[in-house]
Amino acid sequence: MTLDRHDNTTVAKSFEHALKLLFEGSLDARIKRYRPRFVYRGLGDRQYRLLTSLQRLGGPFATLEGSLIRNFRKYAERVAYGGPESAWYWITLAQHHGLPTRLLDWTWSPIVALHFATSVLSEMGHDARIWILDCEKVYDLLPRPVVAILRQEHAFIPTIEMLDALAPALDSLDRMASRRRPFVLFFEPPSIDQRIVSQYALFSVMPGAESLIEDWLAARPNLWRAVDIPASIKWEVRDKLDSMNMNERVLFPGLDGLSSWLKRHYSPGPLEQASTVR
Prior knowledge:
Layout: E1 9-11, H1 15-22, E2 27-28, E3 33-34, E4 38-43, H2 53-57, H3 61-80, H4 87-96, E5 104-107, H5 110-117, E6 128-134, H6 135-139, H7 144-152, H8 160-166, H9 170-174, E7 185-187, H10 194-198, E8 201-205, H11 213-218, E9 224-229, H12 231-243, H13 248-251, H14 255-265
Parallel strand pairs: 1-9
Antiparallel strand pairs: 2-3, 4-6, 5-8, 6-9, 7-8
């Protein structure tokens, strides 16, 4: 992984140390308030790559992007009516419901990212990683048309309405980039359901379905850093997050989230032996 050649990663020694690392640089000296300009992505195994779900699909995935979205719209309209006629709305809705897309999930919340880095039982034996990107520096690299509409709207991150005006289709976005100036664009999704709100979610997108954010970041090490959560402290982090009410029951409102939380909460810990029911 090309990103590994950069010494941008710090290993957390405890839950408290992890929090300190995640909030590092969040104080806005101008107003003496904590106003983080970072976005976070938590992965349960630090070996996982920053690939979109479309890229993980494999095969000729880039040529399948249009078919996936088109068929999603065709079959979903009976249950998803009421949304705007917007390409960005539909790709957001598709990503939210598990369709492979070129979007990548992020959160404004370091605590939410910490949850996702420690929530999967099968990954508790692996070191986790939380990726941290500086949105302010990413903003400085955006194409002029994007910056212009953001300034016009007095915004820092575009909404899908702004994207509709800027690039009404994915190929419109693709044409805005060049080989010399690729870019990463973050945008805030509409509040399709409570899950998006609770997770403080946003998405990143790049021109071209094959574009790798890893390559883009590897060439710009000043834009990112990472915090590793060793497997040796994962249960400590997990239990303390649960005590703070940061769990699936809150982040995935409904019976599915409740069941996921209860299953993990009552699963054997690192020193316990699971009983066998015969």
